[in-house]
């Protein structure tokens, strides 16, 4: 039997109260926003949740353990590079991607035109086929912190398969 591992990741970042850059990294892409997300790195909640899912599947802790916000080396870090580093741990351990499913929870910005390109970027970083990566987006119907436009959350579920 193939060694299968499932991991779940979750990340959330709040929006800044002052307008900032015209774009925010989400899923590795520059997405137009009114307010940037506050974070130690580039604040890419999508890639952070994926990192946590992969690390969880490998039983290697979480993104904060590997890239702590108390370490100046990770200030402003490119989350695509963080994902590459996490993924290299998976492949070095003999795992490949079964599939990855991501749900972005955001009232704003609207992500309809970005989901496919995000999935393509993520698949490329993971050395996977596009059909192995799914990115969805939803709102909270104006409920909770997301509905009040205070921040963005993301869930990610990954299935890793060990190579025999």
Automatic annotation (TrEMBL):
Record's keyword annotation contains Mitochondrion: no
A Pfam family assignment: YgbB
Gene3D superfamilies given in the database record: 2-C-methyl-D-erythritol 2,4-cyclodiphosphate synthase
Binding site for a divalent metal cation: 11, 13, 48
Positions of 4-CDP-2-C-methyl-D-erythritol 2-phosphate binding: 11-13, 40-41, 62-64, 67-71, 138-141, 145, 148
Family label: Belongs to the IspF family.
PANTHER family reported in the protein's UniProt record: 2-C-METHYL-D-ERYTHRITOL 2,4-CYCLODIPHOSPHATE SYNTHASE, CHLOROPLASTIC
Protein name: 2-C-methyl-D-erythritol 2,4-cyclodiphosphate synthase
Protein's organism: Natronospirillum operosum
